[in-house]
Please model this.
Amino acid sequence: MPATTTQSSQIFPGEVFADVADFDHGIRQLLPRYDELLDALTRCLPVNAQRILELGCGTGELSLKILNHCPSAQVVAVDYSPRMLQFAQAKMHPAGYANRWTGMEADFGEWAHNPTITGIGTHFDACVSSLAIHHMTDEMKGKLFQQIRNHLNPGGVFWNADPILPESPLLAATYQSIREEWLNQQGTTLAEIRTRLGSSSTQGYSSQDQLATLTNHLQMLTQSGFEPVAVPWKYYGLAVFGGFVA
Ligand SMILES: C[S@@+](CC[C@H](N)C(=O)[O-])C[C@H]1O[C@@H](n2cnc3c(N)ncnc32)[C@H](O)[C@@H]1O
Model:
């Protein structure tokens, strides 16, 4: 268990729960098909990838899946939350991945503005992110996608798993009912989950959810130079999307 406190009602955007120790169980209650989402993203990575950049690694759940899928990869895992990074770090040694995973405390919004300041490195075979980029404005998403594109090797891939903006009020209601049904299947309710959430304002370039439609995401990826772009997985308001570097 990490030495610092795990609980705080004031959290960074994206930390979700007031107690970090609640995240791994809580996110599986809150989000329909969380594991399937991360597995779908992971399966779209080339197994021979050597250098992978992960943006917003949280407690390391996606890192673990990637390290298992890509047996010779080194993962650079970025998060601006020291508490989340500490939780991720604690999982890597018992899983046998301590030598292949490097946690880095940095804001990927800062990196989008000035890639030299964070020391994240370059020449990645893949970049991945789950449930993190949607905290930035579309303008910042576009900047970030360009930086990612610039830091990938030829043949590289970028996959992002994120919630998307419903295209109509009917779809918004449908996606919401899917989430509530899921919560009920997990034996809980939105009201109960809300009692465990932290409250966040703005941190760096991230703030509360700033969702974009899937179409907008694909346009931003295309404008950033990804070709082709693709959506390998979608379940109502959640999708895995990204693209390739020629
Ligand atoms: C909802 S969690 C998801 C964690 C993990 N990717 C997963 O799928 O379980 C989002 C994470 O992104 C991080 N995050 C959000 N915005 C960030 C930013 N601008 N720079 C670095 N980390 C960020 C948060 O601290 C949090 O750990």
Summary: The longest strand covers residues 152-163. The beta strands are 51-55, 74-79, 101-105, 124-130, 152-163, 229-235, 238-244. The chain is about 35% helix and 20% strand.
